[in-house]
Amino acid sequence: xxxxxxxxxxxxxxxxxxxxxxxxxxxxxxxxxxxxxxxxxxxxxxxxxxxxxxxxxxxxxxxxxxxxxxxxxxxxxxxxxxxxxxxxxxxxxxxxxxxxxxxxxxxxxxxxxxxxxxxxxxxxxxxxxxxxxxxxxxxxxxxxxxxxxxxxxxxxxxxxxxxxxxxxxxxxxxxxxxxxxxxxxxxxxxxxxxxxxxxxxxxxxxxxxxxxxxxxxxxxxxxxxxxxxxxxxxxxxxxxxxxxxxxxxxxxxxxxxxxxxxxxxxxxxxxxxxxxxxxxxxxxxxxxxxxxxxxxxxxxxxxxxxxxxxxxxxxxxxxxxxxxxxxxxxxxxxxxxxxxxxxxxxxxxxxxxxxxxxxxxxxxxxxxxxxxxxxxxxxxxxx
Length: 383
What we know:
The chain is an alpha/beta fold. The protein has helices at 3-24, 47-54, 58-66, 73-86, 92-99, 117-130, 169-177, 203-215, 232-247, 264-276, 291-303, 337-352; strands at 28-32, 35-38, 104-109, 134-139, 159-163, 182-185, 197-200, 222-226, 257-259, 285-287, 313-315, 332-334, 360-363, 366-369, 379-381.
């Protein structure tokens, strides 16, 4: 027998032993991270009742609840359905044992290659360090399925910071049902989920920025690099863009919308393809959605021999660290990304310390005028 087979056999033996022990002891409700959970005898629904009705072992139900080992999507759906039917609520004791003494905070991101994340991480890490905790960072996507273990959760962290659409509403709801502390960043909670969230003002700043292009620089054919489809920042920035056009009687033109996805490479490819079409509609400005996409816009325009801002004005969003150093310097919206990280982390520690968190934190934004829109010396347009 190979080492892997021997290890699997040993794990199976241990699991069977624990299942047998759980079935024998009427006052045992489950086990988490090696702890056997003891409660007083009760006539309430227990983890054994859920396992019996679902036709699975107690260990499988426990793994599903704590996300500390793989459970197939089929079994997960069956277990959750039985829990809903029985109105089963996991023991608070189980939650306590699963969460205690990790001394770590988890941060879920959609990716880690976008320059946007550097100040966000800096803000979070500063607060986490001040509290004597470690910061665990992982990437995740809404398509994530239950058959794999979550990279972060109550098996290795005391609480979770969830960025934008890095986790689906369904999975956020599962964490919420298990009373796992979490704070959402750049995302409002799903319906029925009462957790704090931290974000920035998107709509008004975008409206003001596009209005500046129209009223000050006379640009009326403004191309939109649309952000990720399921991100709220993307949604509200487009709402602001459309509102500014409507303010000046300019109709929304779907032919002037490209998918930039807040990504340099995606924005570059989309705009270059657009420009290489000899029949593309005319345009005189680009709202890039964010600064990372603006870099791709710069590259595509330059490659096609178009000057910024003489031929095409370009504006972004975020005021990333590179924005003032682009050529020409980028007009953009300054979002306090590092402060967003700080306040999100602080709200999570408020939850962990049983302090009342702020349900909603909305950070203000401001426009920073530089050369790319057609302005001269860099100035700050008031909030």
